Amino acid sequence: MTFQDIAQSVDSLPPLSDAILEIQNMYSQGSDNIEIPKLIKVIETDAMLVANILRMANAPMYGFSGRVSSISQAVTLFGIMQIRSFIMSYAVESNIKADMKVYGITNDRFNDMCNLQSALVLQWYSKISLSDTNVIAPLALIMESGKLVLAQEIKKSNYEYDFRIGLKECHDVSKYEHELVEITSYGISALLFKHWNLEPTYSMVLESTKTDDDRIRNYRNILNIVRTAINVRELLTKRSVMMACKKVKLVGLDVDWFVKSCIRVKNSYVKELKRKTLNERH
């Protein structure tokens, strides 16, 4: 398994569905030019897309007290950029079938991780910069997509046992991924987003190349903080939040507000886990 294998795997992925391609074309004209009634109408032509957007919009970690029951309501509550990330998350799930046990977690926990990362950005960073949040929160939901590609390739190569042992022993998951295939899962996500012609900023943020763009550097810092607190090993544990707080302090942001945001997101998540457990018992 090599970088070339990964690149070929990404290149071989099928194109997006007609509805998603049409939506992508709408976004390519600039978010300010999107006609919301038309966007809603196109989404509603794909029943599975509708179901998955509503499923993600109702994830408890986003903290809405009422139930989101329509695409129109979802667009109003989340905005068109976050809706785009829900759409792309569905596209990734539809096109990449992977068993995340390779990373020592279930597929459900992987999905929870992605939603928690996005929810934390919305809860925490929207108070700091709403315009930046409109870029970072959608990216946070899909930035781990490269792990799905890598997990799929590891399964094909029969390298799963060795990978899982190495993963347990390593201190830095991204560094371990790079040692294995000369690219991190975030770099693979960047390749994936280029393959599907997503927002170019997404790939620029996730690539490891140096940049003089302060905006890109800031986005990288914020996402690094979020995935320190929430990752394949830890979902808002005391240790992971503490480690993230150190990085929050380094970039000169309010640590107390970050901790409060983490607590709110985690409380919503724990409450939902308890509800699911009770339902399963009955």
Protein model, in words:
With 282 residues, the chain is mainly α. Helix 5 packs across helix 6 and helix 15 runs antiparallel to helix 16. The relative contact order is 0.12. The mean pLDDT is 90.
Distance between the termini: 45 Å
Strand content: under 5%
Task: Please estimate the helix content.
Answer: over 70%
| CATH topology descriptor | Hypothetical protein af1432
Give a quick account of the main beta sheet: strands, pairing sense, barrel closure.
none
Low-pLDDT runs: none
How many DSSP H or I helices? 16
Q: Strand-and-helix sequence, N→C?
A: HHHHHHHHHHHHHHHH
CATH H level, superfamily name? Hypothetical protein af1432
> Mind telling me the CATH class?
Mainly Alpha
Q: Would you count the extended β strands for me?
A: 0
Globally, the shape reads globular
Classification by helices and strands? mainly alpha
Tell me the number of structural domains: 1
**Radius of gyration (Å):** 18 Å
What is the arithmetic mean of pLDDT? Answer: 90
SSE blueprint:
Blueprint: H1 3-11, H2 18-28, H3 36-43, H4 47-57, H5 71-78, H6 80-95, H7 107-125, H8 130-142, H9 145-157, H10 160-169, H11 173-181, H12 185-195, H13 200-206, H14 214-229, H15 238-250, H16 255-281
